[in-house]
Amino acid sequence: MKEKIYEKVKEDSKQAYAHYLKAFGIIDDEKSVKSETPKKNIDLMILLSKLGLIESNSENIEIINEFHDYLFKLGIEMGVGHGKRMVIDAIKSRSIDFKKLMEMNPQEFVAYNLEPPFIADMKEALANEK
Amino acid sequence: MKNNNFKNRIRNKRLREKISKMVNSEDEFENFKKYMNNGISSEEFTIIMEVIRESRLNGLFSDLKIDEAKLKKAKRKVIKLSPESSQFPLMSELYQNHNGKYIVEDLMNEYHDSILRDGMIIGMDYGKKFIVEDLQNSRFTRKDIEEMPTEKIHEYCEEIRKEI
Q: For a surface tag, which of A51, A115, B26, B87 has the fewest beta carbons within 10 Å of its beta carbon?
């Protein structure tokens, strides 16, 4: 029974993750998502239930799923402004080839290496936290 | 050197209080987003992550009706995870660096930060795509961007077209 619940959560959250990527035009095909992200809410569920802090039931899964979704959206909201700012800063500092930018497909540009100090800092901060 | 450390501690304490106020109040949360969009340092980013983590995880544990005393005790526990365990994909990511042993609180923090980070990465990609489309659709020109006042940059950075 538990395994069935976990499988369902895994599938539901994978679809939600893929949905965001597609909705934002970052990918064309939802089926191409193979991220490990969807499994994370199951991790917490297993951890908390193994520690005897919660019961592994559908009500608690619902709460954890909602939290996962909220946090994910919060991250997106926090990230959007930074993404735009990265491009604005790059244009202002002329560190980007503007002509090339205008010719680029927006999806190609997502993959374009554009790392202002903040992003490098963020990666460093996350690495230091570990 | 000692004086600098003291100044840094005071500065970080004030910064933490300021960020905490913005993150924990619904009215102030919009200001928090503006603050983020203004560009932040790695120090600020670390504090923001810590404040958000503390406030949101506490909210989750309260929703799950977890006993506070039990939770406090559990957070300090060191647990060993089997590397073969396929049920812990996130945690096994860290396995090699921790000889299989983890402090429970670290695992909870890792869970929180990794989801927020995944969201931020998608958000940043979307933001990059968003502005390139606007430029290509002539919503504004290079000159407009170069001369855009700070307040306008904030407004623009907050704009999200898709319903999330």
A: B26
Quick check: helix, strand or coil at residue B78? Answer: strand
Q: What is the pTM of this model?
A: 0.73
- Contact of A119 with chain B, judged by CB distance below 8 Å, is answered with yes
Q: What are phi and psi of A53, to 5 degrees?
A: -90, -30
A28 and A8 Cβ atoms separated by less than 8 Å: no
A68 contacts B122? CB cut-off 8 A = no
Query: Are A125 and B129 an interchain contact pair (Cβ–Cβ within 8 Å)?
Result: no
Q: B24 phi and psi, to 5 degrees?
A: -90, 0
Q: How far is A29 from chain B (nearest CA, A)?
A: 15
pLDDT higher than threshold 60 for residue B148: yes
The interface predicted TM-score (ipTM) is 0.78
Decide if B89 and A39 are in contact by the 8 Å CB cutoff: yes
Q: What is the C-alpha separation between B137 and B119, in angstroms, rounded?
A: 27
The Cα angle at residue A81 between residues A80 and A87, in degrees rounded to 5 = 95
B79's enclosing H/E stretch is strand B78-80
Instruction: Give rounded-to-5 percent helix, strand, coil for chain A.
Output: 75, 0, 25
